[in-house]
Amino acid sequence: MIEKKQKPTLFDALLPIILLLFLLFLAVYFFGDDSSSGPNQIALLLCAGVASLIGLKNGYKRQEIEEGIIKGISLTLGAILILLAVGSLIGTWLLAGTVPTMIYFGLQILDPQYFYVSCCVICAVVALCIGSSWTVAATIGVALMGISSGIGASGAITAGAIISGAYFGDKLSPLSDTTNLAPAIAGTELFVHIKNMLWSTVPSFVIALILFFFLGLNPTEQTTNSQVEQLLLSLEAEFFIAWYLLLPLAITLFLAVKKIPAFPAIGIGAIAGAIMAVLFQQDLILSYANEGLSAIEANIMVVWQVMYAGVSLNTGNKVIDDLLSGGGMGSMLNTIWLIISAMTFGSIMERVGLLKRVVESLMGVTKSVGSLITTTIVTAFGTNCIAADQYIAIVMPGRMFKDEYKRRNLAPENLSRALEDGGTVTSPLIPWNTCGAYMHSVLLINPLEYAVFCFFNWLSPIIGIICAFAGFKVKLLLVKTKDNLVDLPASVKQVS
To answer: What is the pLDDT of residues 30-49, one digit of tens each?
Structure first.
């Protein structure tokens, strides 16, 4: 006999969400910046337990809930492997002198007055070429954060500029996974989708650049030329600096352009860094090694250790030690813990129908086309908060709203743009989202600090909503008649 499952009430669906928001607020109140180092994970798991109890009440079996959890966590295994590879990459690139070399040349080239704008543009161009905001953050982003520290710029603003640029390039790159996923879910062509996104994406980016320009005119801190010169001398003293130490970066970016998946591309980049370290940083390696080891044993041991534990400098120069210590797979374990906890909560919410119930309740307020697109954007953002994963934030709302867009005679590229505006770009703003947790681990700035400066990531959904209500570039479906193509009637007119 098949047991009938009870449809969750709106109270059922909202209870775990409200409780989660309350516990996350308490986590920040009690623990501040350390809230992502355990308190948030406990909050997510407690609310996962509440969602499970609601599911059991509504007729779901424990095994069904467990299967949902396993399925949800399995979706993040690729991200977890990338995180581990990034940890090793940062460690070997620090040891090899790749990151110090990028910082060394960056300190001499980048003007502090235009630093934030430069960060944003550089990350945008590289992300557009390789289609990966994560790879940009782990490579160029790490170096830019180091340069930021060297010139006395704000770490939070720098992180905001890096993320703004990286997500702009990622969003418009045909090589990006999310840029391919959104039109596939909505049912439109890739380049039609990219062309349609320009109307909300480019204005958002231009405004962001203007804001970063004005922030650069009034730096909160100022580093003198003598301090920069001292930092350059310290880098030269601790590391062998040469342009060809940027080879691991070139290899990693080349593999990304060739559409090699992120995990092997970053892993190869980490190995390239290890090889460069052995070839060019022998003095540093031998200073790390235990006494009594031969040169070969020292190289094997130190490179091995750096890949899992990272670099920990103890030069007596606090600026250099703070700037160039870090990396290793071990540094990513807290982020992995956060991702697993978040996906446990999100997977249960999806499996027992609570997430779907929230979305269904929103459909009642979508009377106009503008409200429908706005609801899509808000739902994608909300899914990022609840399910903690940008892919779910694209797939789930895309499936649920697809028929409604078709019923209202709206072209599918309207849906795909809304999914990107609300799902892709907002993911790094949420500390427990996979993207927010990743950016925190790589850039070492809490999302609660950098989020306010991710201007592009906020402006993109806002401008998307403005375009929706204004009817600007809201495209209608076309149907074939015997003679030509005609617009189907709709409640808005396309503005050319």
So the answer is: 988 788 889 999 999 999 99
Both structure tokens of 128? 């557009």
Give the DSSP H/E element, type plus range, for residue 297: helix 295-309
Q: 241, 101 in Cβ contact below 8 A?
A: yes
Q: Between vectors from CA 449 to CA 446 and to CA 452, what angle results, nearest 5°?
A: 130
Among 280, 283, 288, which residue's Cα sits nearest to residue 242? Answer: 280
319 within 8 A of 234, measured Cβ to Cβ: yes
Distance CA 61, CA 3 (A): 10
Range of lowest pLDDT (82-86, 190-194, 287-291): 287-291
pLDDT in tens, 456-492: 999 999 999 999 999 888 888 765 444 444 454 444 4
Determine the Cα–Cα distance for residues 402 and 398; give it in Å rounded to an integer: 6
Separation of first and last alpha carbons in the chain = 58
Instruction: Give the C-alpha separation, 459 to 465, whole Å.
Output: 10
Q: How far, in Å, CA of 238 to CA of 164, rounded?
A: 33
Q: Is residue 166 within 8 Å of residue 138, measured between CB atoms?
A: no
Q: What is the pTM of this model?
A: 0.85
* Partners of 476 in beta bridges: 410
> Which residue reads 């620090």 in tokens?
94
